[in-house]
Amino acid sequence: MRALTYHGAQDVRVDTVPDPSIKADDDVILRVTATAICGSDLHLYHGRIPQTEPGDIFGHEFMGIVEERGPAVTNLQVGDRVVIPFVIACGSCFFCQHDLFAACETTNTDRGAIPSKKVVPPGAALFGYSHLYGGVPGGQADYVRVPKANFGPFKVPTALPDDKVLFLSDILPTAWQAVTNAQVGKGSTLAIYGAGPVGLLSAACARMLGAQTIFMIDNNEYRLAFARDAYGVIPINFLEDDDPADSIIRLTPGMRGVDAVIDAVGFEAKGSTAESVLTSLKIEGSNGKALRQSLVAVRRGGVVSVPGVYAGYIHGFMFGDAFDKGLTFKMGQTHVQKYLPELLEHIEAGRLQPELIVTHRLALEEAAMGYKMFDQKKDNCRKVILVPGATAGTFAG
Ligand SMILES: NC(=O)c1ccc[n+]([C@@H]2O[C@H](COP(=O)([O-])OP(=O)(O)OC[C@H]3O[C@@H](n4cnc5c(N)ncnc54)[C@H](O)[C@@H]3O)[C@@H](O)[C@H]2O)c1
Ligand SMILES: [Zn+2]
Ligand SMILES: [Zn+2]
Question: Nearest-CA neighbor of 152 among 52, 30, 19, 1?
C-alpha cells in the first residue's frame, strides 16, 4: 500500500510499504477514505518529537470503511463507515472508567513523554505519533490497523460527507474540550492564541456556546481574516502588536482581562527569538511565549485552557502571577471518545460546520506537498485533507 512516511526533519514521502494485518483479536483493518494533516504532525515533521524513526507512518486524523475485523470485534461489521479517535483507549481501565481516555493506561507500551515520570504508567497510545506513544502506524495511508476496535471507532451517518465528520477524529473534540475547559458560556470574553485549525474550531465552538467577545492572535493575516469573517473574532496580528495581552486587557471592561484564554499554539510558539534558540538547542523544552501571553491576558480567577502541545521545561514561567491572579489551568491531550455523540449532533443540526476551515484537498500521493504548504502557510493554507487512492492532480484548481 501507499503511506506517508518519515525520512528525517522536513522530509516526508509517500512510499510503498507492507499492508497492515490484524495483530490482536480486537483489531480492525480500515480502508482510509480521508485523512488530514494536523498541527501536531508539524511537530513530528520538524523533527521535534523524540523517537520518531525513518519509515514511521504518520497520521492520526482519519476515517474510512472497515475492511477486515479480528475475531473478538463485536461492535463493527465489514463495510461500516467510521471515524477513528486519535487517542487509542481500552474503554475499561481506571482512567477510561473516568472518561479520561487520553490517560488510558493499557494501550501505550512505550515510555510516554514526561521527564519526571517515575513508575507512573504512560498515557494512551496515539496513532502515528512516535515511539514514545506506542509506535502505532498512522492513517495517512491506504489502510491502517485500528487497535481496540470495540471501543474507539465511531460510526457516522452516510448522509454526512467525509469533510463534515473527519475532524471528529481530533481537532473538533480538541477545540470542544478547550472551550469547555475554559468554561465558555453566554456572554463570556475569550482570547484564543493561534488561528490554526484548533484555534479556528475553538472560535466556532465558543460562538455556538454564546461567547460575547473573542480576541484571536496570530501572525498570519489570512488566518485572522478568515476568523474575523467566519466567527466574528477581533483579530490581533502579533507582528504589528508585539504585546497582544496588553491590548486585550485595555479592551476589556475595568481593564481586568478576559474570562478565559485558550492557548492553541503550543511549544513551537514564535515571537521570542531567545526562547526559539534555547528550545532548538534543547536547553528549554518548550517556547513559553504563547503560554506567558495567555496568563497575562486572563482576568483574576479566570481559566487558561491549553490544547496546544507542550513538552518538558519552560523557564521564566510566571507562576507568581498565576498564583496572585488565582488562575485555573486546564490542559492535555483530548479525551476524544467522550465528546463524539454530542459533537455529531451539532454537526447534523448545522450548528457546527467544521468543514469550513478546509482549504486544500490533495491526493495522498501529494501529501509531502501538503505538509510543506501547511507548515509554511503557503497558498493561504488552513487545513489539508488527503484522499488515498486519488491520482495526483485530481483536486487541482
Ligand atoms: N491537545 C490535543 O489533543 C491536541 C490536538 C490537536 C492539536 N493539538 C495542538 O494544538 C496546537 C495547534 O494545532 P493546529 O493544528 O491549529 O496547528 P497550526 O500550527 O496550524 O496552528 C498554530 C498557529 O499558531 C500560530 N502562532 C505561532 N506562534 C504564535 C504566538 N506566539 N502567538 C499566537 N499565535 C502563534 C501559528 O502561526 C499558527 O497559525 C499544536 O500545538 C498541536 O500540536 C493538540
Ligand atoms: Zn491532530
Ligand atoms: Zn483504558
Answer: 30
Say if residue 73 is in the same domain as residue 160. Answer: yes
**CB of 290 closer than 6 angstroms to any ligand 1 atom:** yes
Amino acid at 352: L
Cβ proximity of 60 and 66 under 8 Å: no
Residues 6+ away with beta carbon under 8 Å from 290: 193, 194, 263, 265, 266, 269, 271, 308
Q: Is residue 397 part of a domain?
A: no
Nearest alpha carbon, ligand 1 atom 19: 39
Domain with residue 219: its CATH number is: 3.40.50.720
For residue 85, what are the domain limits?
2-170+335-387
User: Does 251 have pLDDT greater than 80?
Assistant: yes
Domain boundary pick from 304, 331, 358: 331
pLDDT of residue 32 exceeding 70, the answer is yes
User: At 60, is the pLDDT very low, low, confident or very high (cuts 50, 70, 90)?
Assistant: very high
Nearest atom, ligand 1, residue 218 CA: 34
Torsion of Cα atoms, 28 then 122 then 45 then 142, to 10°: 0
pLDDT tens sequence across 339-359: 999 999 999 999 999 999 999
Q: What's the whole-model pTM score? A: 0.98
Of the candidates 331, 352, 374, which is a domain's last residue?
Answer: 331
- Count other Cβ atoms within 10 Å, centred on residue 15: 14
Task: Please report the pLDDT score of residue 283 as a whole number.
Answer: 79
- Asked if the structure places residue 351 within a domain, the reply is yes
